[in-house]
Design goal:
6-stranded antiparallel beta sheet; Conserved hypothetical protein from pyrococcus furiosus pfu- 392566-001, domain 2; alpha+beta
């Protein structure tokens, strides 16, 4: 059973939410974050990317960075830019991007559920990034960025949510990227109880985006539990900030690849190698090839797009990993032809989120010293769930979720020692 709890959220004053809310910490580099924050002193980027307020030569993992994050967060609280709710509530968060509309429940999820695999994972974490988020959360005493979870849609939950969002939202704005964000406070105790009870009937939830944030919640709990001789399991550090969406509302974008060279092969040799495992044909429309179905790929090099279709026998449809397009490409091209054994660490490969469009692949080949690009069909949410249910790990860079959750619409406090009541 999935255990979720309401919590006393820290939220921007209603008229300030649009100025406070920011992209998540991991979709911008420090230079981009500094430019985006600009002259906005209440942007939540000052909390999630605090290095923008320090000299450029300071490492993002320097102690001063985490101290600055805490200082900036405390200032938002002291200045009443962000206010703490009077009682524990759930929240609803709707995002609209073009024709995509998704509504998630904002709740505190259980660290125990994560450790016991009720909240299931599908990615490995990097130690440096996990430690970074652990230090950030522990220094601030707060979860400032939500973990994006999903579950198999349930009509009972859908009905409650659909009824509640008929009300006026407390926040409603369109961000610079044209995504509309609406936010509601669920402050009716009967509805809170109904939602909690409905989630108890769900067997599993799945981390869609935020593996480092969720792993850091476990680390922080251990640190704080070890320091607390009266630990009883009810403390706020036993829970972490999440937004939980039904699986039938989510859209995963393609996650494409660009590679520096052909591993010493000539163009004709490269084509011949590809033809061993793929049906290959020139794409003569003058437009990039965007795969319309699984096991189809676009290949761009020498100013020409090709359509590549994986041949039967080049993958095992019964295997939840081997059937994935990212794995088919990795096994039959990147590894066996281009000698990219570990795409996590190989400097010859880079990854391009599908939100940027396929023209970005052409640009990277023409302008950024890459030789070949590959377009993929998006991984499905069903495949993600199958992999997680099997206790397996997706290949690197398998999923790109859009729209991204804004940070700063609500924070979950682990301790309240510095909050001005």
């Amino acid at each position: 059973m999935a255990k979720i709890k309401p919590f006393r959220g820290v939220r921007p004053a209603k008229e300030l939410a649009e100025k406070v809310a920011s992209p998540p910490y991991d979709v911008l580099n420090s230079v981009e974050a500094k430019e985006m924050a600009g002259d906005n002193p209440i942007s939540f980027l000052h909390v999630v990317k605090p290095e923008i307020d320090l000299p450029d030569d300071i490492s993002p993992y320097d102690d001063r960075v985490y101290a600055k994050a805490a200082e900036n967060f405390k200032k938002l609280l002291d200045d009443r830019v962000m206010l703490r709710d009077d009682a524990p509530y759930f929240y609803l968060y709707e995002q609209t991007m073009d024709h995509i509309v998704q509504v998630g429940l904002v709740a505190a999820a259980s660290v125990d559920d994560y450790e016991q695999d009720i909240i299931k994972k599908h990615e490995l974490t990097r130690a440096s990034k996990e430690q970074d988020r652990t230090r950030h959360v522990d220094t601030l005493g707060a979860n400032t960025g939500p973990v994006f979870l999903t579950y198999k849609a349930q009509q009972e939950i859908d009905d409650i949510v659909e009824e509640w969002i008929k009300r006026e939202p407390v926040n409603d704005f369109v961000a610079p990227d044209k995504v509309r964000h609406r936010f509601w406070v669920v402050d009716d105790q009967a509805i809170i109880d109904d939602l909690a009870a409905a989630f108890e009937k769900i067997g599993s939830m799945y981390v869609s985006d935020g593996h480092h944030r969720s792993a850091s919640a476990c680390n922080v709990r251990k640190v704080r539990k070890d320091k607390n001789p009266t630990h009883n399991g009810s403390e706020a550090y036993n829970y972490f900030l999440t937004v939980i969406f039904p699986d039938n509302q989510l859209r995963i974008f393609d996650y494409n690849r660009v590679v520096k060279d052909l591993n010493g092969l000539s163009s004709s040799e490269f084509v011949a190698k590809i033809r061993e495992k793929f049906l290959l044909e020139e794409w003569k429309t003058g437009e990039p090839y965007k795969p319309k179905a699984r096991h189809n790929f676009g290949v761009y090099f020498d100013n020409q797009w090709y359509k590549a279709t994986a041949k039967p026998g080049s993958y095992d449809e019964s295997d939840p990993i081997d059937r994935l397009d990212v794995q088919i490409l990795q096994k039959n091209v990147l590894d066996s032809i281009l000698n990219i054994r570990d795409p996590r660490t190989d400097k010859r490969i880079d990854f391009v989120g599908g939100i940027r469009g396929l023209k970005e692949l052409e640009r990277r080949v023409h302008e950024d010293d890459y030789t070949v690009a590959f377009s993929l069909h998006p991984t499905s949410i069903e495949d993600l769930i199958k992999v997680a249910d099997a206790g397996l790990i997706m290949p690197p860079k398998s999923t790109w979720f859009e729209p991204k959750l804004r940070s700063g619409l609500v924070a979950h406090l682990l301790d309240c020692s510095f909050y001005p009541e």
